[in-house]
């Protein structure tokens, strides 16, 4: 049968990730390749109790259809947290619940990107965004990430010369690099964008997870009408609930709402009600502090072992938060070789390739430090060191 798939399907990068995850999902392999939060950090009992209360007290409404924008008490909780944590004047009207923040990437692409449109991205960039955007056939313009955020000269020329409708960035603990924009670069990015027609898509999947607990100033603070933020409960509560949100100016949110309605009418109301109940009966700040402390310890341990065990010429980022870091391999060592030899040695890493829209990533690997315990980090880093010393 000749299936006549739409032409856009050919524009989507080949998903060799599925293959990589299959290869690395062998029993006994310690995986730094994925991006899961620690299972131990998910408060199963607390969520179960919240679910019990929802079924008992609002089961009939929570199991009904609902509005596209999402469960109002949850949107109020999110808006209130923006006001208290970040001093942003958010209201529930500016919040749209989505099915994980991954959905907001798809919806943003749907409402902002026509085939051939310019889209700005960080280099490396989050592969989930590259995949989601690629369905809408943009021309990507990549801006190299430096230690403290985007290369401002390249950023400025992309905005000036290509006038993208959207620039997608992750200022806090970026995936895959772990990089955080400095305060200076946040202001500079906003200054460059101001007066242009480019909307800054500020993906804030990790902003709650700074190891020092200090919130960073969002770019949205400087250019509120030109920025949309996406956020997520995946990394701080539980990814299986699939609840994220968009915080955006009203005209943008109207388009999101239309696009979301066509996609799925609304996000799972039962989960929204359970999550809202959980958040209002538990200490989220305390929970986030505990999760960030665990990830901070894992990150320090991984960084120290990389420093101590790996061959000369291998360098890595030193994240201030989040769940990923990126390592640059010694000259001449390929990330695919490290992947394949690693799996044979019992350790999985993620080659950098899918994070680059313009080639690249062949000499970098992404390492996740949230899903694995301290003992596994120690053992996994020793296995990786054996692989690296063989390959140099
Ligand atoms: C930067 C970034 N954005 C968005 C997502 C999507 O997460 P979710 O849909 O679970 O909110 C992820 C997942 O890892 C991510 O790393």
UniProtKB/TrEMBL annotation:
Signal peptide: none annotated. Pfam families: Aminotran_1_2 (PF00155). It comes from the Archaea. InterPro entries: Aminotransferase_I/II_large (IPR004839), Class-I_PLP-dep_aminotransf (IPR050859), PyrdxlP-dep_Trfase (IPR015424), PyrdxlP-dep_Trfase_major (IPR015421), PyrdxlP-dep_Trfase_small (IPR015422). Its cofactor is pyridoxal 5'-phosphate. Keywords: Aminotransferase, Pyridoxal phosphate, Transferase. This is PLP-dependent aminotransferase family protein.
